[in-house]
Predict the structure.
Amino acid sequence: MKLKPLHIGQHHIPVPIIQGGMGVGVSLSRLASAVANEGGVGVISAAGLGMIGYGTSRNYLQNNIDGLRNEIRKARSLTNGVLGVNIMVALTNYADLMRTAIEEDIDLIFSGAGLPLDMPKYLKPGGKTRLVPIVSSARAVSLICNKWFNNFNYLPDAVVVEGPKAGGHLGFKTEQIEDQDYALEKILKEVIQAMQMITSKHLRPIPVIAAGGIYTGADIAAMIALGASGVQMGTRFVTTFECDASEAFKQSYLDAVKEDVVIIKSPVGMPGRAIRSVFLDEVEEGKKHPKTCPVDCILTCNISTAPYCIMAALTSALRGNFRRGYAFAGSNVWRTDKIISVKELMNTLKREFEMQGLLMDFESAKALPFISTVEERA
């Protein structure tokens, strides 16, 4: 059994693995182009680019736009593969970032951290950009599809369903994260059922992509066996040479043990999964509080009640300063043990997938009724 290509709109993706968008500055042009060159989808995160040295304006939001444009162009100069950007709905200048990505003819836009109910309105006639909402329930994807079709005569080109084992901000209540009723395997089936009703009504295929806690080729095989057309993975790509984060940031992944993986309350208003740090310990003790908001980056962040500035904390972590920040990570981060190339990682995942496929075929064969040689000849 080999991995089958994924098609999103007119975009042919030889290896159905999407590298998740990771801000601030963790997945930029270097990582995205490396993944695209190996046949997957490389994704640039639009979050916080104005914090990491882009642009000459004193306006953070303008620098964010300049940074996204620059990263897309840089990535395109390094690959002919499929590229995407991840733009969080909660970002203050969401609309500007959407327009910028589409102006640059990015192949795919992924959008979550809120319901992306108006994504199609930013498209330009004849453009090649395709839209992929990120959801955490069948109800959410049904709402998005109904809104998009009724308001814009448009349906998603694919859907990412992200379970509660993902890193970063989670689309679940804290009490739902360990509840098996919200496990990826369960919500994936529910989303696929919802999409089957929509695709049969509109007579067009819409791939469903599984995300959240997927770590090995065997995990990929399990998701595809459940009906997913592909997977999205973030954590596994951080510990690659090509990842845009600092070596200290990558080392925090390698050093993490299972007990270091914690659920935090983010200033964005959502729970998040991160690696415990000195900074988070001090936040828990009530020692952190921002006096001002330096960038006004998140719509749902209230400076009067926020314990810290999330963009400043994530920027500090990007540079390896965990006394002033922390790293988001998926539930399996403690399993990382070395830095490898993107090529080696992709080849490993494909090999693991094939081995799992052989095992699944073997188990299926064992379950078949035994037919004797005599009966076969008869």
Summary: The longest helix spans residues 342-367. The chain has two domains: 6-245, 249-318.
